[in-house]
Amino acid sequence: MADGREPAVPGQLELSFPPTENEKEQEAIIEAVLFTMGNSVELRQLAVAIGQDQDVARRAVERLIKRYRSSKSGMEITQLEDSYQMCTKAAYYENLIRVAATPKKQVLTEVVLETLSIIAYKQPVTKMEIEKIRGVKSDHAVNRLVEYNLVYEVGRLDAPGRPALFATTEEFLRRFGVGSVQDLPDVGPEQEAEIKAQVEEELQLKLEALPDGTGQEMAEEAEQEMPEGLERPEEAEALRLKEAAATSEE
In the chain, what are the domains? Predict the structure, then answer.
């Protein structure tokens, strides 16, 4: 090997060696890049910075992550898909706001959160698909999510009118405390059935409160959309729980 170490033999315990001087320099370069950039940096860019391939860069970042986790540093390195970012540790959030302006964290309403859950689990997705699932117009909710930098326009669908496709951003991953969309909580059939029943009951109560005849007409229209229409609130609930867990860690 380039560093003079013997390669690991399959079936044998791989020994842990302290970083070589060259590896320490790679870590230092990556540390400097992440600190200076502030935002997330792709692995390929880190590889360019140290003049090595991505496998070498990944190992260097992993060593750096372990070092920050085991130290008393107030910083940590977070992986976001195939990118990395240096952040302050959530444990010191309260200390930070004593000397800095309180960060403005947007409050997600039920409608906005439900729309976000559809985009998160179905991405990339168009407004028309979102509206088919929710049963109502979603322009305001989608625009608000774009404003909050939680979703963005990722491209255009190859269809008449070329509607915009929306997907979640890195800010979404940070806010909900996940490394990738694959880490989002799964929603089981039992939870789907339970929440769907609750939504149907709530819808029925609203229809009964409407003037005579109006509720029946709306119920018939809603029934036509029901197979796809109201099966997404359980995903919104899963997302809400994920956000609560991420917030509690702060």
Answer: 21-93 (1.10.10.10), 110-249 (1.10.10.10)
